[in-house]
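Posting for a labmate who doesn't have an account.
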Amino acid sequence: MATNTITAMRAALITALAARAGLDGVQIGYGMPSGALQREHILLGPVDGTQEYRALGTARKFDDYTVSLFISVTREGTNQQAADERALALMAEVESELRTDPTVGGTVLTAEVSRYRLEPLASDTTREARITLDIQTRARI
């Protein structure tokens, strides 16, 4: 019996995001890649969760966990708004995918965006927008 659905959910989410036309050309990864990051990327991060037994005498339980997802967009120049808007457009693609299939390919009962943070960053020649997005899930195991 599986003790969680984390790896199956993460793999199904990455596959679904990679198939979205609005994310064409965006680097999408299950975790940190071994090479350099592209200027636009979506990567899965840490997972935090809890388990709750639902019936006495059985092994059935709910597995509630939050998957962090990182979105980053780097643009040449000094226009922070352009970087922010593109990062938010990538976030909208993730949200649309979860609304289209809240079970993430049947791996969980529900998955939805629960929280996010937009962080603007700058260097002398670029502007970057980073979003940390939390996806709250509930699975039965």
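Reply:
Got it, the structure tokens are right above this. The CA atoms of residues 83 and 129 lie 5 Å apart.
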